[in-house]
Amino acid sequence: IPKNVEKIIARGYPSALSNRSVLYYEIDEENPFVFKDDDCIYQVLDDGTCKLVVCNYYGKGAPTILDGTSVIGENAFYGCTGLEYVKTGNGVRKIGNSTFCGCIGLKNIDFGNSITVIDESAFYSCESLEEIILPYSLTEIRYGAFSMCTSIKSVHLPSGVAVIEPGAFDSCFDLENFTVDEMNQCFSTDEYGVLYNKDKSLLIQYPIGAVRNSFSIPDTVEVIGEYAFNGYSGIDSITIPASVVEIKSYAFYTQSWDAMIKDVYYSGSQQQWNEIIIMYPNNSLEKATIHTAAE
């Protein structure tokens, strides 16, 4: 990397720099913007902090992230299958898009106390990750951040979280419940560990690892969110209240015939059911028998 390179932008899945076939990087010693430390390349940001751009970590255990790092960049650890533990350190404010995507050996994360944003697909398919302790500094969990983390058992949302984008915990097949700090102003749960917005007008995510054959959506719910019941294989019947006016895309979607919901019990009339906005695709609803209040 020559001395006049000021910025490195990682794009793609994975980016060129995070290609695991690349074993060694050399950076011009006169470059004031980009430098290398052990397995990682860093970029100096305008505020004097650093962005970890890429880390070709081939060992097991945990890499060292330098003090003064404020951003762990997109795709930085993409596909580091031997990575088992990460300590971000205090000072890291953001974990980028797909940063740890495909780190199938990752078991534990120490988030420190300064992270505010976990970006899209940041931990996608980290299938060995069983527990996440989210920091109180966290404010945003973006689209698909922990999607396909198939071993996570529970998620506790701290008081500062204000944004959870669709599919943040999609296809977490062992996830049994959500809990929310009582001081959180944006989200809530119920006795079944289901995640809602604060007034429970939006059902955000059903914990699809919970073992039950049926579930009744509370009559406060007006919208069933994207990916809310996506891929769930245990519910045979669901009760939907007449208060629901919209069912978002992939709310009831599955690729398995055995995972289809068999019966939907709707508390309104057939005409009311027909008026619900049901976005595409929701194939599990299409195959189910709909029982309305008049039946």
Task: Describe what this molecule looks like in 3D.
This protein has 295 residues and is mainly beta. The chain contains 2 helices and 23 strands. The strands form 5 sheets. An 8-stranded mixed sheet has the order 1-2-3-4-6-8-10-12, with no helix packed on it. The radius of gyration is 22 Å and the shape is elongated. It starts with 33 loop residues before the first strand and ends with a strand.
Unreliable parts: none
Strands of the widest sheet, in order across it, are: 1-2-3-4-6-8-10-12
H/E topology pattern: EEEEEEEEEEEEEEEEEEEEEHEHE
Beta content comes to 15-25%
Defining key terms:
295 residues; mainly beta; 8-stranded mixed sheet; 6-stranded mixed sheet; 2 helices; 23 strands; 4% helix; elongated
Task: Map the helices and strands.
Blueprint: E1 34-37, E2 40-44, E3 50-55, E4 69-72, E5 85-87, E6 94-95, E7 108-110, E8 117-118, E9 132-133, E10 140-141, E11 154-157, E12 163-164, E13 177-180, E14 187-189, E15 195-197, E16 202-205, E17 214-216, E18 223-224, E19 237-240, E20 246-247, E21 263-266, H1 270-275, E22 277-278, H2 283-287, E23 289-291
Parallel strand pairs: 3-4, 4-6, 5-7, 6-8, 8-10, 9-11, 10-12, 11-13, 16-18, 17-19, 18-20, 19-21, 20-22, 21-23
Antiparallel strand pairs: 1-2, 2-3, 14-15, 15-16
Summed up:
The protein is mainly β and about 300 residues long. Helix content is about 5%, strand content about 25%. The mean pLDDT is about 90.
